[in-house]
Amino acid sequence: TNELPPYEPLQHPLSVASRDKLRVLANPNKFQANHNLLAEVISCLSEAAAEINEALSSKEKALEKARKARNDEDPAASQRRVEEMETAHEELQTKVDNMTAQMDKDVRKMIDVDNTIEEMQHTLTNLIKDVSNAATQRTQRSQRGVDEEEYPDFDPTDPTNATQRPLAVSSLFTERVSRARDRYTGQNMTERYSKNNHYVGFKSIVHDVRYNQNEDNPLPPAHLWFREDRPSHGETALGAEDSDDDLQIAKETISTKCPLTLQEFRDPVTSRKCPHSFEREAITSMIEMPSNPIRTEGVKAVQCPVGGCQSILTTSDLHSDPVLKRKIARLQKANRDAEEDSDEE
């Protein structure tokens, strides 16, 4: 038989040109484009979930109104109408619950993909460092005239830096990404999603529109979001002793005006480092001012313009909060309605 020997990947050290190509692959802008695309998909899913739950909430209010406004002159007709509305509401609730559950699942899929992309970027970045360090060591040994066989190449996968030959870069990349994936999938759902800003935003906006900020029905604490992660009877969930604050949600006081422009919000963005929000154009213009001398890791930044706040903000620290935007829009509408009522009087 003329069987070929098992394939062995190339183990020759990367050339300078190959290392440069590896750096191009690790360009943060390419990864950021994917992060932005996934964030946009999650935002669309959140808005769609909010709209269908808002429609259900409106139907619930109409049903409750019909129950209270029964016609005493024709109680049978009123009862039939209420029963028809109850049947339609039950059908709609089933559809909305199923669609919301599917969107919840899809949001978590997008978060999983986003995590994979982040791990790939992190792995590539570290791999470039290891390859560069190995190349530097080879150059230094060559300059000293040291025999390559006496001091073999450094292998970043070997914790003892022993004498085994280095794995191919592609094998290193695959192995490290696989280990990162195993660490991620080894977490339970609470660990994966309860602190993810995208998922918290999705849960918050759906709950907000479904229950219309009803203080008697607050959003459950994060450690109770996933049935499979809930503790058994007699056990205490991790962090449950700190959940009293989660269960006592006070009515929020939200300003509908930007602290920079003092005008009503049109496109608010919120800081990830502090609880303050600004009109997008106003805060980004402030950060990008040519005369702005503040830098953090080489990127333009400003101290949060709200008095007393010491947070340093870059444009990447700002995000659009769909829950806040809906609350502001609701408050603005209520203010306009109140002004119209006062004008009529």
Automatic annotation (TrEMBL):
InterPro entries: Nse2(Mms21), Znf_MIZ, Znf_RING/FYVE/PHD. Residues 134-143 have a biased composition (Polar residues). Pathway: Protein modification; protein sumoylation. The keyword Repressor does not apply. Residues 147-156 have a biased composition (Acidic residues). It comes from the Eukaryota. Residues 243-333 form the SP-RING-type domain. Residues 61-73 have a biased composition (Basic and acidic residues). Keywords: Metal-binding, Nucleus, Transferase, Ubl conjugation pathway, Zinc, Zinc-finger. One of its GO terms (molecular function) is SUMO ligase activity. Residues 61-83, 134-164 are annotated as: Disordered. It is found in: Nucleus. PROSITE patterns: ZF_SP_RING (PS51044). GO terms for cellular component: nucleus; Smc5-Smc6 complex. GO terms for biological process: double-strand break repair via homologous recombination; protein sumoylation. Belongs to the NSE2 family. PANTHER family: E3 SUMO-PROTEIN LIGASE NSE2. This is SP-RING-type domain-containing protein.
